[in-house]
Amino acid sequence: MPAETGLLAGYLDAESLENLPAANDFDVPDGTYEFEVGDYFIKKGWGGDDDARALLIEYLVEGEDADGNDVDGKKYTDWFTLPDPDQDPSTYDTKQKRTLRNMVDRLAEFGYDRTEISTIKPEDIVGVTGTITLKTRAGTGAYKGRNFQNVTSLTIDEAPKPAAAPARGRRAAQAEPEDEPEEEQPEFKSRRRSARA
Questions:
Q1: Which of 58, 95, 131, 154 meets the CB 3.0–4.6 Å disulfide criterion with 39?
Q2: DSSP symbol at 12
Q3: End-to-end CA, the chain
């Protein structure tokens, strides 16, 4: 059958087929990059499961890969599958516990105390900059034959400033208002983008 009459005629030609990434290639090659968090949200429903939920942290990376190719603006996504919110935590299986532990560990790398993790809002994370290292590993067990890219190191440029606890009791009544204006929070912008401005 001639290629011109196939269903995908006009979409794939010999040149575009040669330039397709190999199976299990990732948008961002393994390496260490500067990043800015582009999004932080809960994804709802995928793969035919409308009840599925996952926390996603999207990193926009900057720099060059090991071959010198520009990766500016490419995206790496951390994906943490969440248990059903109605599920009793005492019934979480080993995989659910491991995923939640990894999620809490990741968010703690952003400078939050583990007790604050559930209070983090998108505006607390989006725009944070730092350095990220990505590494691919081969899957094992049921995932044998597949590759997975993971964050092996993440450092942020500046830790979030914890909110001051409100004064209580007599201390609240005795507290005098401050005369000095509050210190402005630094803007978390991409170093490369702010240099271009």
A1: 58
A2: -
A3: 54
Residues 82, 85: Cα–Cα separation, whole Å? 8
Burial classification of residue 77, based on how many CB atoms lie within 10 Å of its CB (0-12 exposed, 13-18 middle, 19 or more buried): middle
Residue with tokens 């979409």: 11
Q: How far apart are CA 64 and CA 56, in angstroms?
A: 24
Written as one letter, the residue type at 80 is: F
The span from the CA of 110 to the CA of 46, in Å, is: 27
Q: Does residue 129 contact residue 189 with C-beta atoms inside 8 Å? A: yes
Residue 163 banded pLDDT, cuts 50, 70, 90: very low
The whole-angstrom separation of Cα 29 and Cα 134 is 8
- Give the bridge partners for 154, in sequence order: 132
User: What is the total residue count of the chain?
Assistant: 197
Alpha-carbon dihedral 111, 35, 44, 92, rounded to 10 degrees: -40
Percent of the chain beyond pLDDT 70?
A: 68
Six-digit token pair at 63? 């720099």
